[in-house]
Amino acid sequence: MSAEAAAGAEGSERFAALMPPSSARRRLLAKSSSLVDEFLEELPGLPVSSDVDLREIRQWLAQFDFGSPVPVDDVIDACAHALRRWNVHNTHPRYFGLFNPPSAFPGVIADLLVAAFNPQLAVWSQAPAANEIEQHVVRFLGATFGYAPDAVGGAFTTGGSEANFTGVLVALSSRFPGAIEEGVRSLDGQPLIYASQEAHHSLLKIAHQCGLGRAAVRAVPTDASLRLDVSRLREWVEADRRAGHLPFLVVATAGTTSTGTIDPLERLADVCAADDLHLHVDAAYGGAAVLSEAMRPHLLGVARADSVTVDAHKWWAAPMAAGILICRDRADLRRTFDIAGSYMPASTPGTIDPYTHSVQWSRRFTGLKVFMSLAAVGRGGYAAMIDSQVRLGDHLRSRARERGWQVVNETPLPVVCIADPSIDERAGDDAPAAYSRMAREIVRRGNVWVSSALAGSRACLRACITSFMSDEEDVEALVAELETARENALGS
Ligand SMILES: *Cc1c(COP(=O)(O)O)cnc(C)c1O
After folding, report:
1. Ligand 1: distance of its center to the CA of 472 in Å?
2. What are phi and psi for residue 295, nearest 5 degrees?
3. For residue 5, is pLDDT > 50?
4. Which atom in ligand 1 lies closest to the alpha carbon of residue 257?
């Protein structure tokens, strides 16, 4: 098509739904921005969650049989309606849930830019700006965690699970380089992974994905504070070695999902150094706290790990999906993922081609939302956000104690697990079901969102200060909801 034709009437009408003319694009972008802003404005007044009727959603969907095209205006309106109506609003200031905060606004814009420019991050030469921006973020975060910026490497992932998967593959490939070609079946023993009983269950899926099998994950008991018990770990590793197995990796958690517990990182680093084990820290949630001077001491020891997972879509409030695996030595990433394809563009000296350093091949520019948020909010802004959520968590703990709840977890992070002895006594062995009923009742009322959990073997209600927009008034609303649920549980 000639330039004239492209600029002419025919050009702008060709595939107009795929690429509307400029005037329509501007109108649609403006319309979408209005919808986004209206949602953000009305959000605090919306219920956090509401009853959903599956049939209603299916009926609504039936209008889209993809037979004949629907005007894009209508499609946008319909989808915004669906997302507003049939969604747990985890971005709500009264969502005290599972590490899914509101999106830092620069990240929302970043995702729009990324979708439009659509850079391809398989190789450096196709997307120099995008690749250099990501490596800049990796060096900054690496240095913040205490790694040498000239050696550190990183891979942007879809989240904590893929980052952990990357870390496990790296550990496997550095301890058993022969298995890269020959597979784990070539080894003369069963490679074993050690993590606490409180570790994230993604590890089980990962062990399967690596060909190790889920049974390769040893769930090490925890101490009274729910931290991985280091002396038990030592005993288990020794016993497994004597039995002919191949211990190769310890996964420490910095901020467990249920209770926000931070494993004893320094002592685990000592064990791994003495026993020649790879140390991976799953800091999917808690790693974000490294940006706060006040909180960083709680993560002491991360600098001695071989690799660390951080989920930017958790406490750094990037829109999903954004995880990062940071590796002390990027040569470990290279060893694990190096590959060549005749159809791939040549590498550029002095740069990194992500497809040779990570699980993914074609990849979205995940790092931009992290970069733009860090740039626009600043390190100090993030520190202030972390510190204020930590303070609000402390406030919730003391309000709960004042109301007679027991706090059953120990963490400096704003994850608060509470139980009530009279509920425990009345429910006996059914305590998990009792707390789960209470959580469901609270969620059904729609004013706040909490979940039930197990802190070790102790059933509890779990509330995490997830949103940087939450304040003391929101915490009071939560305390009142907890009170009502307890009265109902004890009254029934
Ligand atoms: C959330 C979480 C994960 C999994 O991360 P996704 O982003 O959900 O894939 C892994 N480990 C911990 C400790 C987590 O909290």
Report:
1. 27
2. -95, -20
3. no
4. 15
Torsion 159-165-166-167 (CA) sign: positive
Which DSSP category does 305 fall into?
S
Q: What contacts 229, CB < 8 A, 6 or more positions away? A: 196, 220, 221, 222, 223
| Nearest atom, ligand 1, residue 255 CA | 13
Residue whose Cα lies nearest atom 15 of ligand 1: it is 257
The tens digit of pLDDT for each residue in 381-416 reads 999 999 999 999 999 999 999 999 999 999 999 999
Residue-level pLDDT at 341:
86
Best residue for ligand 1 mutational test, from 202, 281, 451 (most atoms within 8 Å of Cβ): 202
Under 8 Å between Cβ of 299 and 144: no
Span 23-34, average pLDDT? 98
Atom 6, ligand 1: residue with shortest CA distance: 160
* Residues in contact with 108: Cβ distance below 8 Å, sequence separation at least 6, in sequence order: 36, 319
Residue in this structure with the two tokens 């899926």, named with its chain if needed: 205
Residue 15 CA to ligand 1 center (angstroms) comes to 41
pLDDT in tens, 316-354: 999 999 999 999 999 999 999 999 888 999 899 999 999
Mean pLDDT over the full length of the chain: 96
For the chain, the maximum distance between any two Cα atoms, rounded to a whole number of angstroms, is 80
Residue entry with tokens 């921005």: 33
CA of 313 to the centre of ligand 1 (A): 10
Residue 200 CA, ligand 1 centroid: distance in Å:
7
Q: What is the residue with the minimal CA distance to atom 10 of ligand 1? A: 160
Cβ neighbours of residue 397 closer than 8 Å, sequence gap 6 or more? 407, 416
The answer to whether residues 94 and 449 touch, using CB atoms and an 8 Å cutoff, is yes
Q: Say if residue 137's pLDDT is above 90.
A: yes
What is the C-alpha separation between 360 and 75, in angstroms, rounded? 31
pLDDT at 168 over 60: yes
Q: Given pLDDT bands bounded at 50, 70 and 90, which one contains residue 492?
A: low
Task: Please state, in angstroms and rounded to a whole number, the distance separating the CA atoms of residues 419 and 62.
Answer: 45
Query: Closest residue (by CA) to atom 3 of ligand 1?
Result: 160
- Mean pLDDT of the region 38-48: 98
CA of 202 to the centre of ligand 1 (A): 7
Residues framing ligand 1 (Cβ under 6 A): 99, 159-161, 164, 200, 202, 253, 256-257, 282, 284-285, 311, 323
Contact 434, 481 (CB under 8 A): no
pLDDT for residue 225 is more than 60? yes
HSE-CB of 15 using CA atoms within 13 angstroms: 3
Read off the pLDDT band of 220 (50, 70, 90).
very high
